[in-house]
Amino acid sequence: MKKLKKPEFMNNITRKMVVTWAVLFVGLLVLGFGMASIVLGVQHKVYGAPINFGNIQMIEFKNQYHPSGDWIAPRHNQANHLHTIISRDIMTYLNRGRRTTRLSNLFRGNPEQQVLNNATGADNTFSFDSNYSGRALIIRFNQPQHGVWDIGGNRREFELVDLPVAADSNIPVHHVRNVYEIRIPMNRTTNSFQSQTWYLVTQNPMEVTAGSSLHISHIISTYGNYHRLWRFINDLRPL
Cα–Cα–Cα angle for 201, 149, 106, nearest 5°? Predict the structure, then answer.
């Protein structure tokens, strides 16, 4: 077998040059990935959908002091603005709990647009209140900001859309269900990164007859730490 001839340029390469190039290459690699990680890490990704504070009609919280629930109005006309302060604090905690970095998003996928059909048994407000009595957060809107529509035609996977739906969006408007309330169970919050379920109420509370239950037909899973939010809610005393 003929022996391969060593290229001439390799004769001029010294051990010192190889070590220098290796260190330089590793340094540039570490620097590049480090800068990319920092940039991605400081950019926050908001999962779910942004909530317009001015469009919130009322917020209901359930804790050990209000097991049946207590409503607060974000723009309550009080001299000390207690309701507004509490409402904004709740929204601050909620937004903080719904955020993660784009870097961690690379490893977990993006659940932002995915809404799964409810299969938990809490199919109306009565069962929700029974299951999460004393540990829940409920947000009601003046006007729906978002809706969900069946993207697969099988009522198992839905997409979250902004309202009103644009005419040129190719979304069948008559298939869109408005979101009138968001109901968040707080029964298993932990001081760690976790998946959190939001129940979307898609029946207008003002159109429900007395004694009827609101139909909670869809849930949306979002990621975040709700532990601090629950601690804040649980500490609220009678207003």
Answer: 95
CA distance 42 to 228: 21
CB-based contacts of 8-17 (< 8 A; 24+ apart in sequence): none
Report, as ranges of residue numbers, the positions in the chain whose pLDDT lies below 70.
1-13, 36-50, 76-80, 97-123, 152-156, 168, 208-213, 223, 239
Q: Tokens 């709990």 correspond to what residue?
A: 97
CA atoms of 216 and 127, how far apart (whole Å): 10
Which residue type occupies 46?
A: V
Query: Cis ω on the peptide bond leading into residue 172 (within 30° of 0)?
Result: no
Predicted pLDDT at 202: 84
What tokens were used for 124?
């109306």
Which pLDDT score is estimated for 136? 94
pTM of the model: 0.75
HEC string of the chain equals CCCCCCCHHHHHCCHHHHHHHHHHHHHHHHHHHHHHHHHHHHCEEECCCCCCHHHEEEEEEECCCCCCCEEECCCCCCCCCHHHHHHHHHHHHHHHHCEEEHHHHHHHCCCCCCEEECCCCCCEHHHHHHHCCCCEEEEEECCCCEEEEECCCCCCEEEEEECCCCCCCCCCHHHCEECCEEEEECCCCCCCCEEEEEEEECCCHHHCCCCCCCEEEEEEEEEECCHHHHHHHHCCCCC
| Backbone phi, psi, residue 183, to 5° | -115, 125
